[in-house]
Design brief:
Elements lengths: L1 H18 L5 H27 L5 H29 L3
Helix pairs in contact: 1-2, 2-3
Length: 88
């Protein structure tokens, strides 16, 4: 499970980095949407690690808070871009 957190967690950063060189606004949204899905997956795996007692309560709450902040940021960026494009 820790490997899954590593994979999905690093995928967030990779997709955000790719979005910086997006070929179009829809491509930008697509890359950040993938990053958002990976952030959701990361939260899932963190919960599983916590439930399985692989993370202490303190460790889990810290990582959960960081991950939820990333989710909020990505959601806000995607919504703002869509709004600016007239999609929302």
């Amino acid at each position: 499970m820790a490997q899954q957190v590593y994979r999905s967690g690093t995928s967030i950063g990779a997709n955000v980095a790719e979005s910086q060189n997006a070929q179009s606004d829809p491509d930008f949204i697509s890359k950040l949407s993938i990053a958002l899905k990976e952030a959701d997956e990361t939260l899932y795996w963190l919960k599983k690690l916590h439930t399985g007692d692989y993370l202490t309560e303190r460790q889990f709450l810290s990582m959960q808070a960081d991950n939820e902040e990333i989710i909020k940021l990505l959601t806000s960026i995607i919504k703002t871009k869509k709004k600016n494009m007239g999609i929302l």
